[in-house]
Amino acid sequence: MQNPPDSGRILLVDDEPAFQRLGADFLRGLGHEVVVAGDAEQALAAFATLPAPDLVLLDLAMPPTMDPEAGLELVPRFARVPVIVWSGHGDHELALRAAELGAWDFLTKPIDPDMLRFVIARALRKAKLDAELRALRAAQAGDDMGLVGQAQATVQLRAMVRRVGPTRVSVLVLGPTGSGKELVARALHASSPQSENAFVAIHCGALSAELLESELFGHLKGSFTGAYRDQPGLVEVAHGGTLFLDEVGEMPPPMQVKLLRFLQEGTFVPVGGRSAKKAEVRVVAATHRDLEAMVRDGSFREDLYYRLKGVVLRTPALGERPADVPLLATRFLHRVAPRAGLSGDALAWLAAREWPGNVRELKALVEAAGALLLPDQPEVDAPLLRLAAGEADGDLPAEPAAPLEGLGPLDAALAELERRLVRDALQAAGGNQSEAARRLGISRVGLIKKLARLGLR
């Protein structure tokens, strides 16, 4: 017998045998496939079994404690699918907590069958749309996994990602700033069996040791000034998925010890807490620093380095793969100007340029040039790229200057004054547009727009 189109595989988690039996019969009568679990351990085991459920129905009061707080801790573990929670306590604060942790809806026992039918149908439709969106994004990404290019170094990197992605091994991504280390981490996640779970990224050098600990491991209410409620950390949010530690070489030494303990034992203690929690994540770390040199000088823990090292992938600098520049530039241009192209002199200018900022610099430059295209310009040329790069260029095509005689006396005087001020600022700055913009008290993008509007070269 074929299931209805809105049917799904449902994990029913409740400790009452009578409710398990009646609930399962009701759900099967609606055409759903039902798996029943009576406690947290059974629920997590069933959730990890293939085929995975499309929806979880979770009673918050679970044995052995029967404390709703214990049930709430399960919500992030099921976060990749809609989770409908219920409880015999119609507590407003409990409902808010469940929603903050990712629950799709909150119902109070006794449960109205019509309401349950409606909520389940809506949640399954949402899950189906999410699956279709993921499939569409995967199809658009194509075989390049988001790692665009045909240079030998890029081809080899993609091959390694495909080989390592399906495993659970930790990965260390090394490469210069702006070379696409996070893209590699996302490609590893997308090619892993955990791709439907969360991908969570954190920059390890952007926060102090105390704040980084709170961000990674969470905190309890009252653990420090401003901690008005319990807050799960990114490790817990990433459970079942991938945790990306960007610029791990910048991590403060006190946090290196706590990260090492988590990697060794799979447990962590939230700030202000006393009991350990568990989380299973795949760790991908990245840095532009020389970690081996940091280990030698004592600024990075040797045991942590070897825990993270698993498999090492290296992202090449853009200068090491010049053949990829045209492909990347075209991809970036089409994001802001889908119908535009790159002229021959633009491609030659890009090929001859050094890229100390790597792919990030190329992306910013090409997207800026695409944004500066005039309506009648079908392609980005070299003068426009030079303008976007902030380099003076005498051959830049610009919109014709508005004739002063077509303006009223006041408008004409103001326009002429604006031209004079801009021209004088550029001359004083030696043609440096960033400095000229600073002298005028405007942004460089604002100056570029004025140059085009006023017809100045």
UniProtKB/TrEMBL annotation:
Name the UniProt record assigns to this protein: Two-component system NtrC family response regulator
The Response regulatory domain, residue ranges: 9-124
MF-aspect GO terms: ATP binding; sequence-specific DNA binding
A UniProt-annotated Pfam family: HTH_8
Lineage, uppermost ranks: Bacteria, Pseudomonadati, Pseudomonadota, Betaproteobacteria, Burkholderiales
4-aspartylphosphate: residues carrying this PTM: D59
Signal sequence, renumbered to the chain: none
GO terms under biological process: phosphorelay signal transduction system; regulation of DNA-templated transcription
Keywords, comma-separated and alphabetical: ATP-binding, DNA-binding, Nucleotide-binding, Phosphoprotein, Transcription, Transcription regulation
Sigma-54 factor interaction domain location: 147-371
